[in-house]
């Protein structure tokens, strides 16, 4: 594949992203090493990315007006806006459910049925089922995050471990669901049927999930005597309602909006007031302000990288790397190339769906050259995009749960054990099945 970009310009287009990562993670890690409380919140991510955006404007060869158009095009991408709307609805649902007492009710209901020794694997399975049904990790996290937080506080389980467990389950479903945007993007770019991709994907994801559940059983602290308070089953119903709608395969917006309304109706059976409902919805929106802004800023910045040729430059470098591995086995080399390609793309964009769309055409070429079945290349694209997305400290999932649990996104991402296990499982599968398409 011959380069279609200027190498110098392409390298330069990656500079703003590197500056943002250095500022955000570097400051957080340094302050954390100094024992500063809430180290990653001392420099808010939407502020940390502003210097990177300014530099992106300065190094581009476009006029100011054209640069503004480029930024707005990226910030207003349908995937970014969709994600931001999910943030708002997830925040509103969490706020209303919490205000009506739904979170406490679900926690006590869950503690009544899940053995204390199985809390972590139980919540992993719940998150996995919900995300598979809904097709979105963000909607799942928005619905289950507040419940997991309350369970963590009640049982003393490490908040980071609990948050990582929810991310793990959410990414399992995001990766596998046939209605997930990542599945749609992967199958369309590689030209295969969803059912074939699902079966291929399941061969890798299921062993990883079993290993994760085993690990979570071992990590669950010794059973403690947890007092289960009385609860109103009516306040639990909004969560069951969401689960039913998700299983029916309804759009995530319909699921979350309906959940908000249903939670309010259940609250009205008690002393919850309409005026409080309106305020709680707005408070839920406000709680998502930081992640909302960051997502739009990252979307705008990624458009500069794409237009500057940064992603094409990285893709060609990865292809050059696979030639070295191909000396030993061409099929393994091209599959690893697909994995590196989509992970690098996701590292720059911080959105697994967009990264699959960007990396898809090059991945298709690698698959064709290496005689790799379309279902395998689609599966690898989706798997490794989700692997990095779930373990990315500035990814939407870690940021949302970090805000929910009041911990650093770094703690969330490093506790998402399923993502790391899935990566190892996928690599082992690539090596062991190197002679089969």
Please describe the topology of this protein.
Layout: H1 7-13, H2 15-33, H3 45-59, H4 64-75, H5 78-100, H6 102-113, H7 119-134, H8 137-155, H9 159-176, H10 181-190, H11 194-219, H12 233-247, H13 252-268, H14 274-287, H15 289-308, H16 310-325, H17 330-349, H18 352-369, H19 374-390, H20 396-405, H21 409-413, H22 417-432
Strand content: under 5%
Order of helices and strands: HHHHHHHHHHHHHHHHHHHHHH
**Terminal Cα span:** 23 Å
Helix content class: over 70%
Which secondary-structure class do the elements indicate? Answer: mainly alpha
**Helical stretch tally:** 22
What is the makeup of the main sheet? none
> What global shape is seen?
globular
Low-pLDDT stretches are none
CA radius of gyration is 22 Å
Kindly state the mean pLDDT as a whole number? 81
Number of strands: 0
Describe this structure in words.
The chain is mainly α and 437 residues long. The chain has a domain at 79-289. It is 79% helix and 0% strand. Helix 7 packs antiparallel against helix 8 (137-155), helix 8 (137-155) runs parallel beside helix 20 (396-405) and helix 19 runs antiparallel to helix 22. The longest helix is centred in the middle third of the chain and has 26 residues, at 194-219. The radius of gyration is 22 Å and the shape is globular. The two termini are 23 Å apart. The model has no long low-confidence stretch (mean pLDDT 81).
């Amino acid at each position: 594949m011959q380069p279609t970009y200027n190498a110098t310009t392409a390298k330069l287009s990656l500079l703003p992203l590197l500056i943002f990562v250095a500022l955000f993670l570097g400051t957080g890690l340094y302050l954390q090493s100094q024992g500063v409380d809430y180290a990653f919140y001392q420099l808010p991510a939407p502020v940390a990315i502003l210097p990177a955006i300014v530099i992106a404007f300065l190094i581009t060869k476009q006029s100011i007006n054209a640069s503004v158009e480029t930024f707005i095009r990226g910030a207003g991408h349908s995937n970014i806006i969709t994600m931001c709307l999910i943030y708002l609805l997830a925040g509103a649902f969490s706020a209303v459910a919490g205000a009506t007492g739904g979170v406490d009710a679900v926690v006590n209901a869950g503690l009544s049925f899940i053995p204390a020794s199985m809390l972590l694997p139980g919540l992993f399975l719940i998150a996995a089922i919900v995300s598979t049904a809904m097709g979105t990790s963000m909607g799942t996290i928005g619905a289950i995050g507040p419940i997991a937080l309350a369970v963590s506080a009640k049982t003393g389980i490490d908040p980071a471990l609990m948050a990582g467990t929810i991310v793990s389950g959410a990414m399992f479903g995001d990766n596998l669901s046939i209605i997930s945007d990542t599945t749609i993007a992967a199958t369309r770019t590689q030209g295969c049927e969803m059912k074939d991709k699902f079966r291929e994907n399941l061969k890798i994801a299921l062993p990883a999930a079993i290993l994760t559940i085993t690990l979570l059983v071992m990590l669950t602290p010794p059973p403690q005597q947890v007092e289960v308070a009385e609860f109103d089953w009516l306040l639990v119903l909004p969560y069951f309602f969401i689960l039913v709608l998700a299983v029916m395969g309804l759009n995530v917006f319909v699921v979350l909006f309906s959940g908000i309304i249903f939670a309010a109706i259940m609250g009205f059976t008690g002393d919850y007031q309409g005026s409080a409902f309106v305020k709680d919805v707005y408070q839920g929106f406000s709680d998502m302000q930081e992640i909302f802004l960051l997502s739009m800023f990252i979307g705008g910045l990624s458009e500069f990288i794409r237009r500057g040729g940064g992603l094409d430059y990285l893709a060609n470098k990865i292809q050059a790397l696979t030639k070295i591995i191909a000396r030993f086995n061409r099929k393994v080399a091209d599959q690893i190339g697909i994995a590196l390609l989509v992970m690098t793309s996701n590292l720059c964009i911080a959105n697994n769906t967009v990264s699959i769309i960007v990396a898809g055409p090059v991945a298709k070429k690698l698959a064709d050259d290496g005689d790799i079945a379309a279902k395998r290349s689609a599966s690898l694209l989706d798997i490794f995009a989700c692997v990095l997305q779930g373990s990315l400290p500035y990814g939407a999932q870690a940021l949302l749960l970090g805000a929910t649990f009041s911990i650093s996104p770094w703690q969330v991402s490093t506790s998402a054990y399923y993502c790391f296990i899935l990566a190892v499982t996928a690599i082992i599968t690539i090596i062991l099945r190197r002679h089969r398409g």
